[in-house]
Each structure stands twice: as structure tokens, then as C-alpha cells.
What we know:
31% helix; elongated; five-stranded mixed beta sheet; 30% strand; CATH 2.40.50.140; alpha+beta; GMP Synthetase, Chain A, domain 3; five-stranded mixed beta barrel; 20 strands
Amino acid sequence: MNKKEQKNFLEALKTILEQRELKKEELQEYIKDVFEKTFSRDYYFVALDSRDRYKEEEELVEDSEIMVEVDFDNFIFEIKRIWTINNGKIAFEKMFRELSIEHDIVLDKELKDGDQYIETVDLSKISNSKRQQIQQLLIQRSKEKAKEKVFNKYKNLLGTIVTAKVFKVEENFILLRLEEVVVYLSRNELLPKDDVRTGQYLRVLILDINKTAKDSQIVASRTRPAFIEELIKEENDLVKQGKIKIEYLSREYGTKTKIVVSTKEKHLDPIGSIVGVKGSKIKPVINEVHGEIIDVVEYAEDEAKLIRNLFHPAQLLGVYINNKSETKEVYVLVKDSEFLQAIGKRGINVKLVARIIGGKIDIITNSKKDDYDYDWQMFPERENRKSNRRQNNNSSFTLKIKSLDEIIEEGNKIEEEDTF
């Protein structure tokens, strides 16, 4: 490698340095590692005995190391090999088969055990193929290091919401820019009413960081249940602090979400704390998901009472829970007039409840009660009246917003559906 070639080689390395935002010390470490790997197949071992005779050795010599000196400003690039005397012999590895080590210089020096000999590698003897191999390995190592930096920087953001800028919109995916990294958002992870355009800022939930993808690609979503939960945390310090706990959250994205909340703080109303005065705390969440209905219900340790709460706004007459089968079976009893409300539009209400309780649900009308020989746990009428009174105190809450424009036109009034 002559001076011109050495200059070109260093300019190429400098480009890698700038593109990957690496420190010079990091690049030097890469060069050292790459040179060791590149020429590892060309090593062979010789030893010089007391009679000045050379002998090939099969054993690995582990008393040498590479030292790299790089000066990008003055285009100086040197590689040195440090050898150490071992067991009364001068033991060393020959880095490149086409290179010769200055044995005479070694012989002229009276070296003892523990002494070191520094060999300057003749770079002019490195072939073009080796040079290209070194450059490719350096690029690969720098990319790996850059991905590792990104992963370490953003790994603590997994499961949280970030705001990123859309820079590419394709048929099956969206690409966003978050600082120096790319955020990948599949079309399947978009809400039905999301109208994404280039230049738009979008809030997304970080699902994963793929270290094997180009530029440590971040995978994001807007459809997962955790997206709603994180939005609520952003709007509500009580949830963030753990004073209000989200026990369950079931979501049919774009349509409806059920949230079960609880608190150990006696002075706090869990439903009211989530919703806020006139929906002030939940409204920004609903705006973000384009009017998706959000049911907020209170947790109950008694499973039957929890199921009754979950079926809000339909009123249950009773419930039978079969835990003896392999899959939990729940049968709920409702008035004939409450049947459609219990199922919900397109069966979504019962589907969300089933996900939370982790079992199968059958809804039975009161007129067909006698057809089923079940040990029903009935809810007393007075308890139902009590539930109706609690509705005014936010024991259950359903909030839906048609559009932000409609809210403004109606003087920021939101519709609260009666529950229980």
C-alpha cells in the first residue's frame, strides 16, 4: 500500500467514521479487531531456539497483540505487532504469509523472558483483495455498533408512546423518523380512520427494536391495547403513580375498549379519576383514536359482580360460572329487552368481556331461563337499584365522541351513556 493508496484507504475509513457517527477510538478498535479476523487464516507459528534455527510450531502463541495507530488528519496509518519472549525463546506469529519478519533484528537484540519486540507491519505488502475485505468488515462492524447504540438508547422506550414524523407512505407500511432512526408501522397496525400523510407527526406505541434490520428499525403500532393504556397514563398522573390501577384492558381497535380500574385509596373514585370532570381526562385519548368508544368500569374481587360490571350498560339478572370444564364457561341471564344491549353491536361487547374473564360466554334471556338447569347466582332487585344509583357516581362510564368538530360545535359537551 503506497502513500496514495494509504490516503485513499484512510479517506474511506473516515467516511465510515462520519456516516456512523463513531469516535476515532471506536474505529481504531474496529480496525484492530478486523485485522486480527482478516488474517487469522494466514497465521502460522515459528520459534527461534538457542541455535538460531527456525521450527514451525503447531501450538497457538498467545503472547502477541496488535496495536493500531490512525491519524486521519495527516493520513498516517500504522499497524504494529507486539511480541513477548516466552520460555526462553523468541515466539511470534507471522501475520501475513507474504510478509517477512525481521529475524536478524530480533537476533541482534539480547531479549529475555518478558521482553517485548515491536514489529511494524509493512502495509505495502497487503493485497488489494485483503484491503477490500478489511474495508467490508469495517463497514459491517460499524453498522453493528451503530445498531447497538440505537438499541441501547431506545430499549427503555419499549412499550411507551413516542411522536415521530412520517417521511414515507407505502401501500403496506408507513415509515417514520424518530431522531436518527426509522420507525416501521405496518398498515395492519393503523386505525381504520387513520389518514396518514407525509410530513405528519404521529403518536405510536413502540413494540420492538429489530437489531437485525437496517438502521435498527423500530416496530410500532396504534392498534394494541397498550396504546390506550399508555395514552391514559400520559393524561392521568394518578395512573402513572399507581394510585389508580388498570386491572384489565380489552380492545377491539377502532370500535370499542373496555377498561377495568381499581384503587386502594379510599378517597379516590377510580372511574371518576380516569374520566375526569365532564370527560376532560379521557377526551384526549378518544380524540387520538378517532372516537373509539371507551367503557370504564370498576373492578370487583367477586367474579360474579365483576362480570355484572363488565356487561354495562346492560343489567344482568344473574350469572352462572362453570369452572369445572377445561375452558371457563359463563352464562349470564338478562331480560329479553336487554339481550341485544348485552351482546353489543356486532357482538363486540360480549367479545370484550370474554377476553377479560378468559372464558366462553353464553347470554340467556329470562324467558328461556327454565330451559337451563343452572345454579344461578341472582342479583337482588335492590342491588340493581343500588347499581342504578351508583351510575350517577361514575361506577361505570361509557364515553364516545363522534368528532372533534362536533364537540366544538356542541360547546365541548360529551355524551355520557347511562350505565347500570
